[in-house]
């Protein structure tokens, strides 16, 4: 008899430890978000490719989950030293960098925001001058025949 009670109690306690909780404690929102940039240095006329240049992860109840890039809003601050104006990155095309200097990439998802800096340089002297009037301002886009 004692053995049967022990087995039943053991099964109940084991099942209750493995069962999901009833109801929720707190909100169902994500706790925090991270970005993993794959590129932080771009050359002038390079493009920010949202599907290959960054990955996004969020913490939900202690578990890290990947967030699809097409579900987030991504924008660029072209000149963070002078303005906080955000230029949205389209979901279907890439975002070209035509001016050298430091840029800030902003990723937003469900009320969370992550930022990181990138640098756009002009190693070949193509002339994409920054706001300090450096460079000629001429932009060359090479076309293939």
In short:
The protein is mainly beta and 145 residues long. Helices cover 12% and strands 36% of the residues.
Give a written overview of the molecule.
The chain is mainly beta. Helix content is 12%, strand content 36%. The protein has one helix and ten strands. The chain has one helix spanning 2-18; strands at residues 32-37, 41-43, 47-48, 54-60, 63-67, 73-77, 86-88, 95-96, 101-109, 112-121. The strands form three sheets. Strands 2-10-9-6-7 form a five-stranded mixed β-sheet, with no helix packed on it. The longest helix has 17 residues, at 2-18.
Which helices and strands occur, and which strands form pairs?
Blueprint: H1 2-18, E1 32-37, E2 41-43, E3 47-48, E4 54-60, E5 63-67, E6 73-77, E7 86-88, E8 95-96, E9 101-109, E10 112-121
Parallel strand pairs: 2-10
Antiparallel strand pairs: 1-4, 3-8, 4-5, 6-7, 6-9, 9-10
């Amino acid at each position: 008899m004692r053995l049967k009670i022990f087995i039943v109690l053991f099964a109940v306690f084991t099942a209750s430890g493995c069962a999901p909780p009833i109801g929720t404690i707190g909100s169902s929102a994500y706790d925090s978000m991270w970005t993993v940039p794959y590129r932080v240095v771009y050359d002038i006329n390079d493009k920010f490719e949202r599907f290959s240049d960054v990955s996004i992860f969020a913490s939900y109840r202690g578990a890290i989950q990947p967030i699809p890039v097409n579900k987030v809003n991504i924008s660029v601050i072209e000149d963070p030293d002078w303005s906080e104006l955000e230029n949205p990155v389209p979901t279907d095309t890439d975002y070209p960098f035509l001016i050298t200097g430091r840029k800030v990439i902003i990723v937003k998802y469900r009320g969370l925001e992550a930022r990181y800096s990138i640098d756009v340089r002009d190693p070949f002297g193509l002339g994409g001058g920054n706001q300090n009037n450096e460079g000629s301002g001429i932009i060359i886009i090479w076309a293939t025949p």
